[in-house]
Amino acid sequence: MPFAGGIEGTSNGALILSVAAAVLYLIIIDQRPTPLRTVAKTLAVGLLAALTFVEGGPLLLFLALALSTLGDAFLSRDGDRMFIAGLASFLVAYFCYIDLYVTHGGGLDSLWITPWRIAVAAAIIVVGVVLFVMIWRRVKPQLALAILVYTLAGMTSATAALTLDRWPVILGALMFFASDALLATERFLISAISPYRALLRHLVWALYYAGQAAITRGFLL
Asked: Stretch 197-218: mean pLDDT, rounded?
């Protein structure tokens, strides 16, 4: 087991239950919103937040995971109001991640002197810009502004993670960003009757949870 105390230890138990909740949500993701669906979705990352607290992880990591859990609770329900509330929660979570990465990273110097980091940062910018340009004409101006701010926060967070030397965190941040890009594609760019919507929903959740778990692992282990 990754943490002390064996399978019966609090930390390992929280991790196991978190993975179980994530798998359960992946199975029932296409069902209509129900209390079970909401509980499974919020427990998955909520238990990662609890794990961070128990292990004495960085406060900013705990806050980012807690805010992500709140966002998951909102997004587990239908409706534009819940979507906006979820977007706001994840936006603040992104700010926490940016602060966390900047605090523990090597600064811009570590980003620009490494070719692969420059290439990945450029890819993040291209994906973010192209995605926003494709979306902004399809939504109301107020929502377009919110999506712009959120997209910039996501791009900044993923780029800031590249200044770290913690591979799990870098990979996790990139998966988190990719999940948001696919979520935006599923919600705004493809037809409601597209056969790819179900596949995208599963990919979004798998990338999102794996990303959050990788970031947590990178700072706790």
From this structure: 96
What angle do helix axes 35-54 and 59-75 make, rounded to 10 degrees? 180
Within a 10 A sphere around the Cβ of 187, how many other Cβ atoms? 16
CA distance 104 to 218: 12
Q: Decide: helix, strand or coil at residue 16.
A: helix
Half-sphere exposure of 51 (CA within 13 A, CB side): 29
The fraction of the chain above a pLDDT of 90, given in percent, is 71
Rounded Cα distance between 62 and 152, Å, is: 22
Contact, 100 vs 61, CB < 8 A?
yes
Contact 43, 49 (CB under 8 A): no
As a whole number of angstroms, the distance between CA 26 and CA 194 comes to 19
Q: What does pTM read for this prediction?
A: 0.94
